[in-house]
Design a protein that fits this description.
The complex is a heterodimer of chains A (247) and B (433). Chain A is built from nine helices and twelve strands. With 247 residues, chain A is α/β, with parallel strands linked by helices. Chain A has a single domain, classed as 3-Layer(aba) Sandwich (Rossmann fold), CATH 3.40.50.300. In chain A, helix 6 runs parallel beside helix 7. Chain B has a domain of 267 residues. In chain B, helix 3 runs antiparallel to helix 7, helix 8 packs across helix 9 and helix 9 packs antiparallel against helix 10. Classes of the chains: A alpha/beta (247), B alpha/beta (433). The interface between A and B is medium-sized, with 29 and 24 residues.
Chain lengths: 247, 433
């Protein structure tokens, strides 16, 4: 589904990703771990098409297409979803309206009929159960005044509504208390399917107590330095990232 | 007297009014004379006047307007089709003239057209309180030459079940439209007043309006204005509220139309514990100049004023906000807040915010802030990352910016109407972003 080859990315003239290679197949969950500043967030942002990321080399192929040539919205319409580490507040824009606009854009691009407000609400209520979210969030402006945990739940809700093929989660576990972590992880597990790939970017092993990855990759200084099975995450937790560096 | 030839038509028009004015009571004639004298003394605002620094009225001063009543191309019956679909007591004005035969007047409330109102004691009380020497020359012009208007008298404790909705329709080229709307809200009365200004596109006319409200003890008044005048027209409106003890005002002004438009709102707290929440939204396109001026006079202690003025500007439009807050000596425990936020959608749009605070009491809470900026890129990216196209993302964000003002309208039907008018204009502005 996703194939990253020798990807080089700079931000503000500074090279952050220095040749990433990664292949993710449909049905798989991959965890990307690594210390702060290793380039984890940049990897997620370049996949979503953030304008600050300048690709200086390499390629990203998504379902056989050149992902890097696609606009931000076209990536989303083609099924790429990024759960933000720091979700953005959108004052004055109602959460339900936002979610419906997004879903209808995605549906239109897939040749599906748009949902009216009533049908959409039925879909939305169903999805809200997944993240155990209160209905009061629907009438509020997107993320405005939400707590950290509420924002993350809202990201997972968006993911559940948009049903992406490739979900990229950028430190969705950071800043969550244990209850919120359980809910968010539960939402991700519910999204696992043979047609969907999930890329989990995390600093800590604890998210992986709830979501069992198929593969774990360690990112350091802009490169994947180690890949392995889920046990690798446990090993990292025990020994720390410095261990990877040792010859 | 100001001997400028541009004022001569107004002098002539005033003389022509004499026969009509015979019906007016003496006190009203004295007031009118005084207003006219004041207008002729001051003349039209000039470019150099500090209060008009950003808003050039030379299109008005240089033009010859027709002061006499003008007929409409609309059969007045037809104007009824301008009614939005919401429940209200509709009052119609065409080219500044009241249309009593098509206006609906509910029981229990007195709605008196202006010439007759002159003999009404309630009207006399209200207008003499609102007529002060603080008026600018345009307000004086309205008092001097404006013949039409209505007086809405809401008695003590009354609460009409739907708003008064005034539709001002103008379609006569060169018309000078000077309606006056007066609202007297009795003790603990609750009432909502809407003024909706519409005009035939392409017609160059001049609306110079006055709206006054007196709020007795404990009264609650909601005032909404939607200004969608012709884009060739000039619009200068004054709204003045006198608030007594414990009264409450909510005022929302939407500036959408007009070539040059200014809305001046003054509030005076004449009793303790009164509150005013005042909001405005200017949506400017092309070369429009949309100007909001406020003056909140904290003349009594323990009053609260909260102002939020926003503008969204495209093309080479200009938005101006001047907000004056005066806290008089002795007005302790005043709580005054003022905020101006401006969103520029193009490189050539411009916004100016001028807060003017004069605080003469020491135990007060006063805050103000002003911001001018463009849409931030992070929210645009966020929406696009969810599949929303860039143009649509920017439209949604601009609408969200506007919503903070329109969401303050508690009447749902009216909030929706304001939303529709806002979205229409934003759609037009998108092309100029």
């Amino acid at each position: 589904m996703l194939e990253i080859n020798d990807l080089h990315v700079s931000i503000d003239g500074k090279e952050i990703l220095k040749g990433i290679d990664l292949t993710v197949n449909a049905g798989e969950v991959h965890a990307i771990m690594g210390p702060n500043g290793s380039g984890k967030s940049t990897l997620t942002r370049v996949l979503a098409g953030h304008p600050s990321c300048r690709v200086t080399g390499g390629s990203v192929t998504y379902e056989g297409k050149d992902l890097l040539a696609m606009s931000i919205e076209d990536r989303a319409r083609a099924g790429v979803f990024l759960a933000f580490q720091y979700p953005i507040d959108i004052p004055g824009v109602n959460n339900t309206y936002f979610l419906r606009s997004a879903l209808n854009e995605v549906r239109r691009s897939r040749g599906l009929e748009e949902l009216d407000a009533v049908d959409f609400l039925t879909v939305l209520r169903e999805k809200m159960k997944i993240v155990e979210m209160n209905e009061s969030f629907l009438a509020r402006p997107v993320n405005e005044g939400f707590s950290g945990g509420e924002k993350k739940r809202n990201e997972i809700l968006q993911m559940a509504v948009l049903e992406p093929k490739l979900a990229v989660l950028d430190e969705t576990d950071s800043g969550l208390d244990i209850d919120a972590l359980r809910v968010v992880a539960g939402g991700v597990n519910r999204m696992r399917s043979p047609e969907r790939a999930i890329l989990l970017v995390t600093h800590y092993q604890r998210l992986l107590d709830y979501i069992t990855p198929d593969r774990v990759h360690v990112l350091m200084e802009g490169k994947v330095v180690l890949s392995g099975e889920k046990e690798l995450a446990l090993h990292l937790e025990e020994k720390g990232y410095a261990w990877v560096k040792e010859p | 007297m100001n001997d400028t030839p541009e004022l001569q038509p107004y002098v002539d028009a005033y003389e022509k009014l004499s026969p009509q004015r015979l019906k007016e009571p003496d006190w009203f004639r004295v007031m009118r004379d005084e207003a006219m004298r004041s207008f002729l003394d001051k003349g039209f605002p000039k470019r150099g006047d500090e209060a008009w620094r950003y808003t050039d009225l030379s299109a008005v001063t240089g033009a010859r307007f027709i002061v006499e009543p003008m007929t409409s191309r609309f059969v007045s019956e037809g104007v009824r089709f301008l009614k939005p679909s919401l429940k209200a007591n509709f009052l119609f004005f065409i080219n500044g003239q009241f249309q009593p035969h098509i206006s609906g007047i509910p029981a229990g409330v007195r709605v008196i057209p202006l010439p007759e109102a002159g003999n009404d004691e309630g009207f006399r009380r209200a207008i003499t309180r609102l007529f002060t020497d603080e008026m600018d020359s345009l307000q004086s012009l309205n008092f001097g030459l404006g013949m039409d208007g209505v007086f809405i008298d809401v008695p003590d404790g009354a609460a009409p079940d739907c708003p008064f909705y005034v539709i001002h329709w103008s379609d006569a080229h060169g018309a000078l439209c000077q309606p006056k709307i007066l609202l007297a809200a009795g003790t603990d009365a609750r009432v909502a007043l809407v003024e909706d200004f519409r005009g035939a596109e392409g017609k160059m006319y001049f609306s110079n309006t006055f709206t006054g409200a007196t709020l007795a003890k404990g009264a609650a008044v909601q005032y909404y204005k939607i200004q969608s005048e012709s884009r060739a027209s000039c619009h200068t409106a004054a709204m003045k509220a006198l608030q007594e003890e414990g009264s409450d005002l909510l005022s929302v002004s939407l500036a959408i139309g007009g070539k040059i438009a200014r809305h001046t709102l003054s509030v005076k707290f004449g009793g303790a514990g009164a509150a005013a929440r005042v909001l405005g939204l200017s949506l400017g396109a092309d070369r429009q100049v949309l100007d909001h001026v406020t003056g909140i006079d904290h003349a009594s202690p323990g009053c609260k004023s909260d102002q939020l003025f926003k503008s969204i500007l495209a093309g080479a439009a200009r938005g101006v906000f001047t907000g004056k807050v005066l806290v008089r000596r002795g007005a302790q425990k005043t709580d005054a807040h003022q905020s101006s936020k401006n969103l520029l959608l193009s490189e050539t749009a411009k916004a100016d915010a001028r807060p003017q605070l004069e605080i003469l009491a020491d135990d007060v809470k006063c805050a103000h802030g002003a911001a001018v900026g463009q849409l931030e890129e992070d929210p645009v990216f966020y929406l696009r990352s969810r599949g929303i196209g860039e143009k649509e993302a920017r439209r949604i964000l601009a609408a969200g910016f506007a919503n903070e003002v329109t969401d303050a309208i508690p009447l749902e039907s009216l909030r929706e109407l304001a939303g529709v008018r806002t979205d229409e204009k934003l759609g037009e502005m998108e092309a100029e972003a």
